[in-house]
Amino acid sequence: MMKISDLQSKDIVNMENGKRLGHLTDLDINLTTGQIDAIIINGTGKMMSFFNRDTEEFVIPWGNIVKIGNDVILVHVPEPYLPYQSG
User: Fold this and answer.
1) CA distances (Å), origin 57, targets 2, 12, 39, 40
2) Contact (Cβ atoms closer than 8 angstroms) between residue 37 and residue 28
3) Residue 41: pLDDT above 60?
4) Which end of the chain has less neighbouring CB within 10 Å, N or C?
5) 60 vs 77: CA distance, rounded Å
6) How many CB atoms sit inside 10 A of residue 73's CB?
7) Residue 24: CB atoms within 10 Å
8) How far apart are CA 59 and CA 21, in angstroms?
């Protein structure tokens, strides 16, 4: 079992280009099935998002997660499709 706090501490890296995308800030959970549909991350360069109300968030579908490792979450998101914007 893994806690959301464990996921939040990991860097999210796109295997398409090796770029760090940010950190997990939220989950999109399907209330009917109880499954996680997507992870929501802050865009890179938005370290102080608590104080910055204009923080851009990106949605990465759960199916695009390749591997959850000890330090990183590897995702596969083709470059033309970034960013997935929430909201």
Assistant:
1) 23, 13, 10, 7
2) yes
3) yes
4) N
5) 8
6) 20
7) 21
8) 11
